[in-house]
C-alpha cells in the first residue's frame, strides 16, 4: 500500500471507530509495518496540527483516537446538547489522585489514605468514566480494585499513567514527617 493510501486508511479507521483503537490492531488490519504505520500517523498529526483543522490525534497508552480540538468544544456543545464538563469536587479530585497513583486500589485503601468514607467520590468517578473496576483483590471479601480509564487520560491530557507528574522528593519527605508526627500525637492520647 502506498504512503498516501495508508495515511488515508488510518484516518478512515480512526474516524469510523469514534473511540480509541490499538495501534497493533490497525497495523494488523492494514498489513503494514510498525514503521509505515508510525510514518502515516506522524503525517496525520502534522496535518491536524494546523490551526485551520478542528480535530486532532490523541495517543493513549498503546491506542490512538481522533477527537475534536478543545478550542472547538463550545461550538460542538451548541449542536450536541451535551452538558459542558463535569466538575469534580475536591473530594473527588483527591480520590481520583489516589486511584491514579496507587492503582489498582481498593475502596478501603482509598479511605485509609483520605481518612474518610469515599463511596460517593468513587461512585461519581465511575459515573464520569474516570475510573473503573479492574478486578478483585485476592483477600477475604474479595474487594473491588479500581483503576483509571482512557477517559481519565483524555480528560487530563496524558498519554499514559507513567506521564503523570511526579511529586518533588522534598515535599514528599515533609508529608511523611507530618504524617509521622500526627501518628505520634494520636498514640500519645
Topology:
Blueprint: H1 3-17, E1 21-22, H2 23-30, H3 34-49, E2 55-60, E3 63-68, H4 73-80, H5 90-102, H6 107-114, H7 119-128, E4 131-136, E5 144-148, H8 150-156, H9 169-188
Antiparallel strand pairs: 1-3, 2-3, 4-5
Helix pairs in contact: 1-3, 5-7
Task: Estimate nothing, just give the exact number of structural domains.
Answer: 2
CATH class of the largest domain: Mainly Alpha
Mean pLDDT over the full residue set:
87
Number of helices: 9
Order of helices and strands: HEHHEEHHHHEEHH
Compose a concise summary of this entry.
The protein contains nine helices and five strands.
Architecture overview:
- The chain has nine helices and five strands, in the order αβααββααααββαα.
- With 189 residues, it is an alpha+beta fold.
- The protein has two domains: 3-78, Arc Repressor Mutant, subunit A (Orthogonal Bundle), CATH 1.10.10; 90-188, Arc Repressor Mutant, subunit A.
- A three-stranded antiparallel beta sheet has the order 1-3-2.
- Helix 1 (3-17) packs across helix 3 (34-49) and helix 5 (90-102) packs across helix 7.
- The protein is elongated and about 75 Å long.
Characteristics of this structure?
single chain, 189 residues, alpha+beta, Arc Repressor Mutant, subunit A, 2 domains, 3-stranded antiparallel sheet, two-stranded antiparallel ribbon
Amino acid at each position: 500500500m502506498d504512503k498516501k493510501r495508508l495515511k488515508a486508511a488510518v484516518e478512515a479507521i480512526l474516524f469510523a471507530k469514534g473511540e480509541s483503537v490499538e495501534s497493533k490492531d490497525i497495523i494488523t488490519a492494514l498489513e503494514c509495518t510498525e514503521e509505515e504505520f508510525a510514518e502515516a500517523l506522524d503525517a496525520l498529526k502534522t496535518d491536524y496540527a494546523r490551526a485551520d483543522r478542528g480535530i486532532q490525534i490523541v495517543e493513549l497508552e498503546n491506542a490512538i483516537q481522533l477527537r475534536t480540538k478543545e478550542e472547538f468544544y463550545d461550538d460542538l456543545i451548541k449542536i450536541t446538547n451535551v452538558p459542558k464538563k463535569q466538575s469534580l469536587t475536591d473530594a473527588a479530585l483527591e480520590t481520583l489522585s489516589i486511584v491514579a497513583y496507587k492503582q489498582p486500589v481498593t475502596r478501603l485503601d482509598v479511605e485509609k489514605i483520605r481518612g474518610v468514607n469515599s463511596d460517593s467520590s468513587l461512585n461519581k468517578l465511575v459515573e464520569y468514566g474516570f475510573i473503573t473496576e479492574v478486578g478483585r483483590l485476592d483477600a477475604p471479601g474479595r474487594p473491588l480494585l479500581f483503576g483509571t480509564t482512557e477517559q481519565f487520560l483524555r480528560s487530563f491530557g496524558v498519554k499514559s499513567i507513567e506521564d503523570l507528574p511526579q511529586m518533588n522528593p522534598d515535599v514528599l519527605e515533609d508529608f511523611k514527617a507530618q504524617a509521622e508526627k500526627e501518628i505520634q500525637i494520636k498514640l500519645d492520647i
